[in-house]
Amino acid sequence: MPTIGEKLTEARQRQGLRVEEAAEFTHVRAEYLRALENDQFEAIPLTDVYRRGFIKIYARFLKLDPDRILADYTPAHRDEGDRHLQPSVITLGDDLGGESLGAENGVTPGRGYTPSRSDKFDGHRKKLTTYAIIGAASFVVLVLAVVVAFPSLLKRGQHPAETQDPSDAALNAGEDTTANELSFQLVVHSFAYGRITITQKSDGKVVCDERFADNTRKSFSAKGPLKVESDAGIEKVRVQIGQHLFYAKDKNAKEFFVDANQLKGALATPRSRNP
After folding, report:
1. Are residues 30 and 107 in the same domain?
2. Least confident range of 109-113, 175-179, 218-222
3. Do residue 113 and residue 41 come from a single domain?
4. Is residue 103 located within the same domain as residue 204?
5. Residue 135 in contact with residue 105, Cβ under 8 Å?
6. Which of 123, 131, 164, 261 is 20 to 30 A from residue 61's alpha carbon, by CA?
7. By three-state DSSP, how is residue 67 classified?
8. Is residue 145 situated within a structural domain?
9. Residue 257 domain-assigned (yes or no)
10. Which residues does residue 219 pair with via DSSP β-bridges, in sequence order?
């Protein structure tokens, strides 16, 4: 009946592998694999737990049933006292029921192993160190970007004095601002199809934002000076307040205004066109 070593040797030779190649793939020292193939288990200067582990790794690598191979394992020299050793570099997990094999004992990290807690801790520590370096570098870059960009942002924040709307300037230059509180009815005449928008200048309230058919009129309530706009051509719009009729004098204009003085005049005098 073939021995464990003979079965391992035959399986390796059948696959056309050298011992050194098997050692590279299994991460078990070549001299230990030779000892296994020669049935010289005691030549491996480790406890029985490691010898069994190497046999199991090598058998699986050679596509043999490790349990059948281990069934024939009856080493003549067991050092039971060494079973208390607990190297902790590599854990074979399910393969050895959680038994650990140390790199100093002939196994190096690679395929077919699961890192132990100490390995995992070292890996996490390295990752955290890398993340910390990346985070610090990102923070430095961000600070430099702020330092470089701050002067230009500061200049942008120093806006020149805003240009006052002509109608507002007129109000501040002597118009009677009490007209802002005057409430009245207005009639919008449209001589084209389109949307007409009328906004109170005092508070921005929109009193009219509707579509008009050609040659139609509608009434609205409003208060204070007005801004009139239309997408159908502002020259096609007339706004009647009291007896006064307001319209755009410039046919190329996109809007026209009814200011405070014009509003007071419209509410106090007989009908007329734009003064």
Report:
1. yes
2. 109-113
3. yes
4. no
5. no
6. 123
7. helix
8. no
9. yes
10. 187
Phi-psi region of 190 (alpha: psi -120 to 50; beta: other; left: phi over 0): beta
Alpha-carbon gap, residue 52 to 58, rounded angstroms: 10
Give the Cα separation of 228 and 190 in Å (integer): 12
Which phi and psi (to 5°) does residue 260 adopt? -65, -45
Work out how many domains the chain is built from and give that number.
Answer: 2
Residues of the domain holding 17: 4-119
Residues 104, 178, single domain; the answer is no
Residue 196 domain-assigned (yes or no): yes
Residue 128 lies in a domain: no
| 254 and 184 in a common domain | yes
Question: With b meaning 16 or more CB within 10 Å and e meaning fewer, what string describes 191-229?
Answer: ebebebebbbbbeeeeebeeebeeeeeeeeebbbbbbbb
Entry field: residues in the chain:
275
What is the pLDDT confidence band of residue 86, given thresholds at 50, 70 and 90?
very low
**266 residue type, one letter:** A
- Whether 181 has a pLDDT exceeding 60, the answer reads yes
Report the C-alpha dihedral over residues 97, 98, 100, 106, rounded to 10 degrees. Answer: 50
Strand (E) or helix (H) holding 227: strand 226-230
Residue 236, sorted as left (phi over 0), alpha (psi -120 to 50) or beta, turns out to be: alpha
pTM check: above 0.70: no
Between CA 191 and CA 256 the distance in angstroms is 16
Structural tokens at position 260: 């405070």
